Input
Amino acid sequence: MSGNESRAKVVFLCGGQGAQYFQMGKELFAANAAFRACLLRGEEIFHGVAGESLLDVIFDPCRRKSDSFDQLEYTHPAIFLIQYALAQALAERGLTPDLVVGCSLGEFAAAAISGLAEFEDALVAVMEQADRVVRHCDEAGMTAILDDVELFDAEPALFADCELAAVNYARHFVISASRPVLARVEKALQARNALHQRLPVRYGFHSSWIALPDSARAGLALKPAQARVPIWSSAAMAPVSRFDADHGWRVLRSPIRFAETLQSIPNHAGHVYVDLSPSGTLSAFARNVLGVQSQRAIFAAMSPYGNDAQVFDAMLGGVLASEGRRFPEPSC
Output
């Protein structure tokens, strides 16, 4: 193996639905010029298409972080935009990825960050995807379960009428089902003292509850662009070189295999990982996938539990310590 192949790489992780909350990025919007400029650029694009303000929804002063943020026409572009803006803020400080991993909706952010798609095209595509899902799909839900994923196959009666939507690591999986079925499963899990959480999502992504006509599926493609860095797909569990309609449908409909995707990256345990998801949950998943030896090389760029600017600076400091780099001070 050559030195270039074996050296530690910086891997950006981009997440999807369930990572959103009101007020996400508000402190960083005030403190970081590059982050703010990117959000304002996205706001202009969103307003031009939708005729309203996305930032007014995300930063609604009447909403608390704990309020359910589940309107897909807002959450889809909001999750995409926050992650792309974080990547731009990091680039302004000199931190760019060697590769990007996309997870669910995060594949659209990963495509834009990697250069596989243009920012504006990807943002509009995300908005159009949300519109298609709202117009064509029945409402359902998703529940995350903190237990051995083998439980899903071992207890068919418990998970009757459910579909396995994601495997984030061996003891964290997500199911999609109708809301009455999820309520039944959650009641049974509660009786067993099994940890679980309903995600703030009104649709059963990565399952048969997502059903689109062929005409709507055709619009899931992104216009091809020249990728600057490789992108790994959590739907394909492998690198991808184009984002055509077939891949767009796979991202929306196929189960997420986050653990297997990370493990498919060469020398995966020897890299530095930066989680761009607003909730920071992908960093927790990565720690469970990669093991003890990688704990000090996995960072979250944002968290719902702390000051955005402090979390962002702490993450940069952690990467600096891991990589022996020096990052420039932010521009005025």
User: Anything to note?
Assistant: The chain has a mean pLDDT of 92. The chain has two domains: 8-137+211-323, 141-198.
